[in-house]
Amino acid sequence: MTKPSIETRFERTLFGARWLMAPMYLGLVVSLAMLLVTFVKEIAYYAPKVLELTPDQTILAILTLIDLSLAANLLLIVLFSGYENFVSKFDIADHEDRPDWMGTVDFSGLKMKLIASIVAISGIHLLKVFMSLGKTEGNYAVSATTLQWMVIIHLTFVVSGVLLALMDWLSAKTDKH
């Protein structure tokens, strides 16, 4: 039994709609460039002051750069995996610089990488705030209530990550229908 032609055309239209995501992935490329500009701006700010910085200030500057780097890595993972999972496969299979994970990260793996990156970024930000407690200089002066909420939110990210991993593990253990 064949499908009616209207149903076939409708399904092809729905399938073709995946290309509406392409501009969003281009927007993520622009976001990656924005992170690069911010990273360079931070380097340009701290590099001339390196001999004047205290060890704590140096660590905070480095944590800021690591934070930006993790956010950029997260953007790349979402960009590559999302495009390959939802729009089209990259035609670069034989390129020597192709990351091993490309083409193998499914939606479940993408969720896990996303939550792990969010937890890492949140943890680094929280560490920066902890390191600046009691200091008057810097941009990280926070109230006890704000710090409490930051810890609660970070723990929420951690618990969410553990629950997502548990759900994926349970899903992998069950029989497929």
Number of helices: 5
Please bin the fraction of helical residues: over 70%
Shape: elongated
Task: Note the gap between the termini.
Answer: 24 Å
Strand content: under 5%
* Run of helices and strands: HHHHH
Determine the mean pLDDT: 85
Could you say how many structural domains there are in total?
1
Structural class: mainly alpha
Radius of gyration computed on alpha carbons: 22 Å
Largest sheet properties? none
pLDDT < 50 stretches: none
β-strand number: 0
Family: Belongs to the UPF0114 family.
InterPro entries: UPF0114, UPF0114_bac
Pfam families: UPF0114 (PF03350)
Subcellular location: Cell membrane
Notes on the protein architecture:
It is found in: Cell membrane. It is a multi-pass membrane protein. It comes from Fuscibacter oryzae. Its main location: membrane. This protein has 177 residues and is an all-alpha fold. The chain has one domain. 70% of the residues lie in helices and 0% in strands. Helix 4 packs antiparallel against helix 5. The longest helix has 32 residues. The two termini are 24 Å apart.
Task: Summarize the SSE layout with pairings.
Elements: H1 5-16, H2 22-46, H3 55-86, H4 107-131, H5 144-173
Give a quick rundown of the structure.
It comes from Fuscibacter oryzae. With about 180 residues, the chain is mainly alpha-helical. Helices cover about 70% and strands about 0% of the residues.
